[in-house]
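Question (not urgent): is this output format expected?
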Amino acid sequence: MTSRLSVDIGVALWQREGAANHVADLVDQSRGLYERGIPAVWFGQRQDHDATTVAAVVGAAVPGLRVGTSVVPLGPRHPITLGSQAQTANAASGGRFTLGVGVAGPERDAATFGVRIARPIAHLREALTVLDAYRGMGTVDHAGPHLVAHTPVPSQIAGGGGFGLLVAALGEQALRVTGELADGSIPFLTGPRTIADRVVPGLLGGSGGAPRRVVAGVVAIVTDDADGVREIVRPALDFYATIPSYRSVLAAEGAAHPIDLALIGDEDEVAAGLRRYVDAGATELYVTQTDLGGRRAQQRTWDLLAGLTRTAPN
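Got this back:
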């Protein structure tokens, strides 16, 4: 039997195809994962559900389960509004919510929302400054070149303060800002070499050497048909090969395509791959795309993760 890892492992969830109710399905999946022994679930943000709201609903419906977003783009969202949502989700989940945010990129924000952030790192710094103050004191008084945020009265929600704050940071400047103002990074599809050589030292450079959370997102599927499943998963990862920051990660990892960073194989192969992330400095893991290999492969993957995660839910 494979020994447990020294970190907790969560699962990123999307609704199942054909679900009669999108949110109810995510609650049902989350409850099943918690009962199986998975301590945390994460929800991504597209243009369908609101990830922070889903996390709040799931956290309230499944007591004990840790919930988070991976990730909410900052560009079109004012940090006071986002902080209010995060406080609500943290109160609803009994203090078990982590807000993961990211910078989508100027072109994507402009195409989707008609918003163009001219200086994304400067905007990130101001947004994190506001969010950090808001989660700590419930009050903000900030006027910067990119953001204005004022709360004329205290806005702390009972039970909502102190939510976790992570950033999908990969670049040197973004990691430094994250190390200064957030709890850590939530990098996706990076590879263990990037975690060890870029993410961990980059965060420490912005935090004066203080430890930071590194929640590594990994594509992992347990299957006996590794080649066949890779061909299914490859198109889902093509998009990341077009993003400059991910192309730099691929080069650093010696990978030709993001599929080369996916852990697809039997239980021993996937467990060994996850262990490499822990050895590289990841303090937590979350596994995504587990549904792309079919129902049986997903169940095997979840069973493996439950057996590997550091702490089983109470």
